[in-house]
Specification:
The complex is a heterodimer of chains A (about 160) and B (about 775). With about 160 residues, chain A is α+β, with helices and mostly antiparallel strands. Chain A has five helices and five strands; from the N terminus they run E-E-H-E-E-E-H-H-H-H. Chain A has a five-stranded mixed sheet, sandwiched between helices. In chain A, helix 2 runs antiparallel to helix 5 (about 145-160) and helix 3 crosses helix 5 (about 145-160). Classes of the chains: A alpha+beta (about 160), B alpha+beta (about 775).
Chain lengths: ~160, ~775
C-alpha cells in the first residue's frame, strides 16, 4: 500500500507492506538510519521520533498510522544542515553519549520532555528528568551525563 | 597544549552520533542483499531427529535453507575456545564440539539449527518458522552445582560429568595450615549472578562473497575485527586471511559480548558463498538474550583467616563456574587467570589457594563481560572483608587498611606482581568525599523517617593492559596480546593514526588524537584515527580488558618515537643543525635557541618530495610499531556506597555512591569519568536489578526488557567520582586502564551497604525489593524468637 507523510519537512511517499512499522518505513524505505531499533518490546526508546510534535516509539506504530502525519527524526531536528539543535549541543558538551546507539532516541525524548514542561510552565528537575527517561535505556553512560545534558539542553532551549 | 594529555577535550566522534549519521552494521545495505533468519532449538537439550525444509523452500522470496550437516560437509570448522587450561591432574580441558549449526544435538534454547535466506526480513522469519524440526527431548540441567552431581544429564560426550576442567592455583597445604591456626575465620557461600551484557546495538552481520575475486567481506558488530578474521580463517576455514576483509564500523557498545565470533557471522559468510547473495542478519533483542555470551555465574565457598591483630593469614576459595552449553572464545580464561589471580585484592596475604571447576550446562555460553573474572574475585574478597570486620567488631575500613599492600612491586601468591598503587590515598579520598564521619548523623535522620541507612566499602584491584604475550602464552593463551599502530604523516602535515584497538563507545577518536596532539604540538582536528577495518589496519588485537590505553596507546607512542626521530633527522639536515638541537613545538620543528625552523607541514612535504633529505634515507613519513606489554597494569580504588531501605517494602535507594580510582595517567578526564559512571551503573545493575533466570527446563525466563531489569535513569544515583593516581611504571604513558573498574568495584560496595542497613548478611545479588524484604523478615523473626 502507498503511505505518504511529511518527514523532516519533506513530503514522502512509499509503497510498502501493510504491516510495515514506522521505524521500518523510516530506516529501510527512507534510509534515515539515525532512528535505531534496540529491542522488540517497546522498552528501550532507541527508535523515538516525533509524530505531529509528540515523542513516539516508532517501533510501536504502523507506518500506516502515520499516514499524513508530520514526522521528525533526529536527522531533521536541527534548523539546518550546518546547525545543531541546542539539545544536540548539550549532549556533546556534557559527554551525554558514548557508543551513540541510544543517543538519537534520547535526544528526541529529551526535546519532547523539555517542550512539554515549558508549555505547561513546569520546572524540569533532575528527578523529573530521571522519571521521564523511564522509556529510554542507555547501557554506556550510567545516565549521569545524560541527565546533565538534558538539564543543560533545557536551559539552552529556553534561551534559544 | 590545550588538547593534550589531561585535557577535557569534547569528543570528535560525537557529531555523527547526535545527528543520526553514525554508521552501524544494520544501517548498511549491500546491493543484491538478502536477509537471514535462524531456525533455533526451542529445547534446552534435544537430539535432532529430522529436519524438513521443503515447505520453507517453497515460500515466496526464499533463496535457500542450509543446515548443520551441509556446513560440516563443506569443511567449516567447529567453534573453538582459544585459551587452554590444564586441570590439577595435568590433563587438558575437555572442550566439546561446537558446530555453528547444530548437527546431532541442540544443547541450549537458541542453539542454531538452520539458516534461512530470503529476499526480505519478514520472508526469512516466516520461512524459518516453516522449517520442521523433529526433536527428541533429553533431560536438562541449568545450574553448575547440579550439572556436577552424579547422574546429571551428560551434555558433551568428551566431558564426563560435565566437567570441563578442575583447575587450581596457590598452595593448598600451607593455606589449610594457616586457616587452622587463625584466631578468627570468616566463611561464606557466595553466588555471583548470571548477567546478559546487553549493548544497546544488537549484533548484526552482512557477509558478501565476491565469486569473481574469490573474496569475502564481512561487516560485523565486533570489538576486534582482526581477531575475527584470524579465527574465521585459521579455525573455521571460511577463507584465507587475504581473501577475507572484516569491517567493524560504528559499534553500539560491546562490554565483552562482541569479542567473540559467533555462529551467525560464520554461517552468514558461508551462506553468502552458497547463495551468491549478500546475506544480512540482525539480532532482535530476544535473540540477543538467547545467543550473546552471558557473564559471571559463579557459585563459591570462601574462607578467610585472621590473626589476633586482624592480619590476614590465609584465603581459600572453591568456585564452580557455569560455562553454558559450549566453550566460548575466551571462556576458560575468565574464572581462572582473570579471576583467581586477583583474589589477593589490595591485601598482603601470604597463603592463598583456589580451585575452580568449569561446568557444562544447558544454557547460553558464558564468557567475558565487563570486568571478566575480576568482578567475581572482588566480590568474594570484599564481601569477606566486610563480613569479617562485622564478625570481629572492627571498623571495615580499618581492617582493610591494616592489611593493605604498601610496598611495590608486590608479588602475590597467585601470579600477579602489583607494580604500583597507594591504597591508603584512595581510601582516604573516598572517605572524605563520602563524609564517612557524618554517616551516624545521616543514619539517625533516616531512622526518624522510618528508613534504614547503611554504608558499604569495596576496595578493588584489577589487572588490565592484557598482557605480556609470552606470559599469557605460558598460561595457555592461543594468541599474543600486543597491539599495533601506524602513524602516517601526510605531505600536508596532517596525521592518520591506524590502530588495532577498536572503539565502540570509548572515545578513541578523541583520546588517541590527544596523545598525538601532545607529542607533536598540533591541534586534534589535524589528526584522524582509523580503526575497525582489516584492509586498512594491518593487524590488531582489539579492545577489551581495559587494554586500549595501556597497550593500544603505547603502540602509538612507540610509532610516534620513530616518526619523531625521522622528523628530527630531516629538519637537522635541512636546517644544517645537530639532531639533538631540534625541538618540536608550536606547529614547527626548530633549532633550539635560534630562529631557524621548518613548519611541521614543511617537514612532511620534505619527506615526500624527497628532494632534500639525508643521504640514504627512505622517502615518506610513516612508521608502524607493535607494542608488547611488560606486565599487567593494576587499576585500584575505593568505592563507598550508601543506601536507604524502606523496611515496609524492601525498596532500596542508592543515596550516595563515591568512587576514588587510581587509573595512572589520565588522557581525558571527561571520558574517564564517563567510563566510571557506566561501569558503576552496570555494577549497581548486577547488585540490585539484573539476573538471567532459567526454569528447570532450560527456558530463559528473562529474555526481554519486560523481564530482565536493565538499570534505568530513575534506578540510579549521580556518582561522585574522584582520582588519586599513581603512575604505572610498565608503559610509556603510565596508564593503567579505566573501562571496567566501575563494574568490578561496585557490586560488593552495594551489597555491603544493604546488608549493613538491614542487619542481615545473608543476602544475594540481585538485592531486589523482594529479596531485601525477605532478609528483613528473617531479622525480625530472629528478634522475635529471642
Amino acid at each position: 500500500m502507498k503511505i505518504a507523510m511529511t518527514v523532516n519537512g519533506k513530503s514522502v511517499s512509499r509503497d510498502v507492506e501493510g504491516n510495515t512499522l514506522l521505524v521500518e518505513y523510516i530506516r529501510d524505505h527512507l534510509r534515515l538510519t539515525g532512528t535505531h531499533v534496540g529491542c522488540d518490546t517497546s522498552q528501550c526508546g532507541a527508535c523515538v521520533v516525533h509524530v505531529d510534535g509528540k515523542a513516539m516509539k516508532s517501533c510501536t506504530m504502523l507506518a500506516a498510522s502515520a499516514e499524513g502525519a508530520a514526522v521528525t527524526t533526529v536527522e531533521g531536528l536541527a534548523k539546518s544542515k550546518d546547525d545543531l539543535h541546542p539539545m544536540q549541543v548539550a549532549f556533546k558538551e556534557n559527554h551525554g553519549l558514548q557508543c551513540g546507539f541510544c543517543t538519537p532516541g534520547m535526544i528526541m525524548t529529551a526535546t519532547d520532555m523539555v517542550a512539554r514542561y515549558q508549555a505547561e510552565g513546569k520546572i524540569l528537575t533532575e528527578d523529573n528528568i530521571r522519571h521521564e527517561l523511564e522509556g529510554n535505556i542507555c547501557r554506556c553512560t550510567g545516565y549521569h551525563n545524560i541527565v546533565k545534558s538534558i538539564a543543560d539542553g533545557a536551559s539552552k532551549m529556553t534561551s534559544a | 597544549m590545550s588538547e593534550g594529555i589531561g585535557a577535557r577535550v569534547l569528543r570528535k566522534e560525537d557529531k555523527r552520533f547526535i545527528t543520526g549519521k553514525g554508521r552501524y552494521t544494520d544501517d548498511i545495505i549491500e546491493s543484491n542483499q538478502a536477509y537471514a533468519a535462524f531456525v533455533r532449538s526451542p529445547h534446552a537439550h534435544a537430539r535432532i531427529v529430522s529436519l524438513d525444509a521443503s515447505a520453507a523452500l517453497a515460500m515466496e522470496g526464499v533463496e535457500t535453507v542450509l543446515t548443520g550437516p551441509e556446513l560440516v560437509a563443506d569443511g567449516i570448522g567447529n567453534i573453538i575456545c582459544g585459551w587452554g587450561i590444564t586441570s590439577k591432574d595435568g590433563t587438558p580441558m575437555n572442550m566439546g564440539a561446537w558446530s555453528a549449526l547444530a548437527t546431532e544435538k541442540a544443547r541450549y534454547v537458541g542453539d542454531a539449527v538452520a539458516i534461512v535466506v530470503a529476499d526480505t526480513k519478514s520472508q526469512a522469519k516466516l520461512a524459518a518458522e516453516a522449517v520442521v524440526v523433529n526433536y527428541e527431548e533429553l533431560p536438562v540441567v541449568v545450574g553448575a552445582v547440579e550439572a556436577l552431581a552424579p547422574g546429571a544429564p551428560q551434555i558433551h560426550d568428551n566431558a564426563p560429568g560435565n566437567l570441563i576442567f578442575d583447575w587450581e592455583i596457590g598452595d593448598l597445604a600451607p593455606t589449610d595450615a594457616a586457616l587452622a591456626s587463625a584466631a578468627h575465620v570468616t566463611e561464606m557461600a557466595i553466588t555471583n549472578n548470571r548477567l546478559a551484557p546487553n549493548p544497546m546495538e544488537p549484533r548484526s552481520a552482512i557477509a558478501t562473497f565476491n565469486e569473481a575475486e574469490d573474496h569475502y567481506t564481512l561487516y560485523t558488530t565486533s570489538q576486534n575485527p582482526h581477531v575475527a578474521r584470524l579465527v574465521l580463517s585459521a579455525f573455521y576455514n571460511v577463507a584465507p586471511e587475504h581473501k577475507l576483509r572484516v569491517i567493524a564500523p560504528d559499534v553500539g557498545g560491546g562490554f565483552g559480548s562482541k569479542i567473540y565470533i559467533y555462529p551467525e557471522e560464520i554461517v552468514c559468510l558461508w551462506a553468502s558463498m552458497k547463495s551468491g547473495r549478500s546475506v544480512k542478519w540482525t539480532s532482535d533483542r530476544t535473540e540477543a538474550f538467547l545467543t550473546d555470551a552471558h557473564g559471571r555465574d559463579h557459585v563459591s565457598t570462601a574462607k578467610i583467616g585472621f590473626d589476633n591483630d586482624g592480619k590476614i593469614v590465609g584465603l581459600k576459595v572453591n568456585t564452580k563456574a557455569n560455562f553454558g552449553a559450549y566453550m566460548s572464545l575466551f571462556s576458560s580464561a575468565v574464572p581462572t587467570y582473570l579471576y583467581a589471580t586477583l583474589l589477593s585484592g589490595q591485601y598482603d596475604i601470604a597463603n592463598i589457594y583456589c580451585d575452580v571447576q568449569a561446568v557444562y550446562t544447558n544454557t547460553v555460553p558464558v564468557d567475558a563481560y565487563r570486568g571478566a573474572g575480576r568482578p567475581e574475585a572482588c566480590y568474594v574478597v570484599e564481601r569477606l572483608m566486610e563480613t569479617a570486620a562485622r564478625e570481629m567488631g572492627m571498623d571495615p575500613a580499618e581492617l582493610r587498611a591494616k592489611n593493605f599492600v604498601r610496598s611495590f612491586p608486590h608479588q602475590t601468591p597467585v601470579i600477579m606482581a602489583y607494580d604500583s598503587g597507594d591504597f591508603d590515598a584512595n581510601l582516604k579520598q573516598a572517605q572524605a568525599a563520602a563524609d564517612v564521619a557524618g554517616f551516624a548523623g545521616r543514619k539517625a535522620e533516616a531512622a526518624s523517617r522510618g528508613k534504614l541507612r547503611g554504608m558499604g566499602y569495596s576496595n578493588y584491584i584489577e589487572a588490565c593492559g592484557i598482557a605480556p604475550s609470552a606470559a599469557v602464552g605460558s598460561l595457555g593463551a592461543g594468541v599474543g596480546l600486543w597491539e599495533s599502530a601506524e602513524v602516517r604523516v601526510n605531505p600536508v602535515g596532517t596525521i592518520e593514526i591506524l590502530t588495532g584497538s577498536h572503539s565502540h563507545g570509548q572515545g578513541h577518536e578523541t583520546t588517541f588524537a590527544q596523545i598525538v596532539a601532545e607529542r607533536f604540538d598540533l591541534p586534534t582536528e589535524n589528526i584522524q584515527i582509523v580503526h575497525g577495518d582489516t584492509d586498512k589496519v594491518q593487524f590488531g588485537m582489539g579492545t577489551y580488558g581495559s587494554r586500549s590505553g595501556a597497550v593500544g596507546m603505547s603502540a602509538i607512542v612507540k610509532a610516534m618515537d620513530k616518526v619523531e626521530a625521522k622528523v628530527k633527522k630531516i629538519a637537522a639536515h635541512v636546517l644544517e643543525a645537530g639532531e639533538d638541537d631540534i625541538v618540536i613545538e608550536g606547529g614547527a620543528v626548530k633549532v633550539a635557541g635560534t630562529d631557524k625552523q621548518m613548519l611541521w607541514h614543511e617537514v612532511g612535504l620534505a619527506a615526500y618530495t624527497a628532494h632534500n633529505i639525508p643521504e640514504g634515507m627512505e622517502p615518506g613519513l610513516k612508521e608502524s610499531a607493535f607494542y608488547d606489554p611488560t606486565n599487567f597494569t593494576f587499576p585500584a580504588g575505593c568505592y563507598i556506597c550508601e543506601v536507604e531501605v524502606d523496611p515496609e517494602t524492601g525498596v532500596t535507594e542508592v543515596v550516595q555512591f563515591v568512587a576514588s580510582d587510581d587509573f595512572g595517567t589520565i588522557i581525558n578526564p571527561m571520558i574517564v569519568e564517563g567510563q566510571v559512571h557506566g561501569g558503576i551503573a552496570q555494577g549497581i545493575g548486577q547488585a540490585m536489578l539484573e539476573n538471567v533466570v532459567y526454569d528447570a527446563a532450560g527456558q530463559q525466563l528473562s529474555a526481554s526488557y519486560m523481564d530482565y531489569a536493565m538499570p534505568r535513569a530513575d534506578d540510579l544515583p549521580n556518582y561522585s567520582v574522584h582520582h588519586a593516581s599513581t603512575t604505572c611504571p610498565g608503559n610509556p604513558l603510565g596508564m593503567k586502564g579505566c573501562g571496567e573498574a566501575g563494574a568490578i568495584g561496585s557490586p560488593p560496595a552495594v551489597i555491603n551497604a544493604i546488608t549493613d542497613a538491614i542487619g542481615n548478611n545473608n543476602l544475594s545479588m540481585p538485592a531486589t525489593p523482594a529479596a531485601v524484604w525477605a532478609a528483613l523478615q528473617d531479622v525480625s523473626q530472629k528478634l522475635a524468637a529471642e
